[in-house]
Amino acid sequence: MTTMTPGARRILDVAAELFYAHGIHAVGVDTIAAESGVTKRTLYDRFGSKDVLVATYLRERDERWRARVSAAVAAESEPARRVLAPFAVLADWVAEGTSRGCAFVNAFAEIDDPGHPAFAVIRDEKRWLRDLFATELAGAGVADAETPARQLLVLHEGALVTHAVAAEPGVPAATEAAARLLVDAALS
């Protein structure tokens, strides 16, 4: 992400909190500007439109998630643990206040226009995780890595939804155990 002015940073931080807590359509630029302590003109000068602000919010969240997952993968030397690293990270991620589930799934539910600047960010985040699973599975010696990679993606996404909607305790740990079974089967 490029360097932002302090005002732009404040706008983005406030928008991120509001979008995640209340939804994209429920939060207007008037509210974001007021809570950021800037004028609407400043908001538009810094981001151009609410759509660009939404895309920037999601892109920044994606960058934080990728950095965390990539660090967890890099910290592992055992191939199976490298594949499972996104599940290990998930427990900490949801403990940090992601009670509304996946920001990308939530945004996708609100954005149905493929031309919206956030649409590609949402799709890319999911593809990246699937590709990471496939790459790590292939590196572990799995010949057909695409099938278990898709299964792991479904488990991962399901964990976020179940954690948020059902408020089911222990979902990250249960999901990691299920993922381990999938990985073990793929490695056999």
From TrEMBL:
InterPro entries assigned: Homeodomain-like_sf, HTH-type_TetR-like_transc_reg, HTH_TetR, Tet_transcr_reg_TetR-rel_C_sf
Alphabetically ordered keywords of this record: DNA-binding
DNA-binding annotation, residue ranges on this chain: 28-47
Gene3D superfamilies (UniProt xref): Tetracycline Repressor, domain 2
Pfam family, one: TetR_N
Ranges of residues in domain HTH tetR-type: 5-65
Protein name: Helix-turn-helix domain-containing protein
Species this chain originates from: Actinomycetospora flava
